[in-house]
Amino acid sequence: MDFKLEEILKKYKIKAKKSLWQNFLVSETILENISEIIEVFDKNIIEVWPWFWALTEKIIEKKPLSLTLVELDLDMIKILEDRIQKKELDISEIKNFEIKNCDVLKHIPFEKNYSIIANIPYYITSPILRHFLYNIESTPEKMLILMQKDVWNKILEIFNKKIRSSVLALFIAKKSYVSEKLFVWSHNFIPAPKVESSVLLFEIHKKFDYVNDEKFFKIIKIWFSANRKKLIKNLEKWWFQKEELIKIFKILNIDLNSRAENLWIEKWCELVEKL
């Protein structure tokens, strides 16, 4: 652990709360690397679940135009306010600085052009991604998210066509391109999680906005409920005549023996739109 971060933990008697699934990243090098992956200077940044503010300090040093911190833990907010008061953190050059004590799933950003930086626990990863990609009007330009291996493996499936698709990977691929930027070993956290983590960069796009989101979700969930069966069988069960489906599959150049997990995002969107 870095000495400076160790001193902060001791000074404020910070302990991770199991109820909030807290794991504190305590490597200065990794924190610095994370803060450099996306442009921060003169940009609107929202940091989600900053916890004991180690990454926040790196972001502040890079002088964003605005910085909104969304934190559920009141104890952590008190620590931040104390550090600002004692001039340990200098926010004087940030035009708009705000701390939001709220559930991130209820946070509606007012910014139009912004990026999200977040360290999120396993159990809330999918809801947070869906919130910022689908549930709000003003979606981010980029999201830089530190998450555990169990989740990022599933997300990256759709961007590696040697591996099968999944509902999680598809709903993310409909709205963003995802790339792995940094691998983080578990010993860089306190307490150390049981699995390794990685920093993923989500770059938001509108490539598949021609397909209705609600329709897309409804259909892929039904198809993946029996993803080992042939896709054409699932469709025949729910909506269509087999003859119709065969015609559509041939038009879209989809193998009649395909299963839900075999189609990539491009074909899924074409098929949903055609149906």
Q: Which runs of at least 5 residues are low in confidence (pLDDT < 50)?
A: none
Determine the number of helices (DSSP H or I, runs of at least 4 residues): 11
Task: Report how far the terminal alpha carbons are from each other.
Answer: 55 Å
**Shape annotation:** elongated
Strands of the biggest beta sheet: in what spatial order? 4-3-2-5-6-9-7
Give the integer mean of the pLDDT values.
86
The overall number of domains is 2
Outline the structure in words.
- With 275 residues, this protein is α/β, with parallel strands linked by helices.
- It has 2 domains: 3-204, Vaccinia Virus protein VP39 (Rossmann fold, 3-Layer(aba) Sandwich); 213-274, Helicase, Ruva Protein, domain 3 (Orthogonal Bundle).
- Helix content is 38%, strand content 18%.
- The chain has helices at residues 3-11, 28-37, 54-61, 74-85, 125-135, 149-156, 167-173, 213-224, 231-238, 242-251, 265-274; strands at residues 24-25, 44-48, 66-70, 96-100, 114-119, 142-148, 176-184, 189-190, 197-204.
- Helix 2 (28-37) crosses helix 3 (54-61).
- The relative contact order is 0.11.
Question: Which short descriptors sum up this protein?
Answer:
275 residues, Rossmann fold, Helicase, Ruva Protein, domain 3, 11 helices, two-stranded antiparallel ribbon, alpha/beta, 7-stranded mixed beta sheet
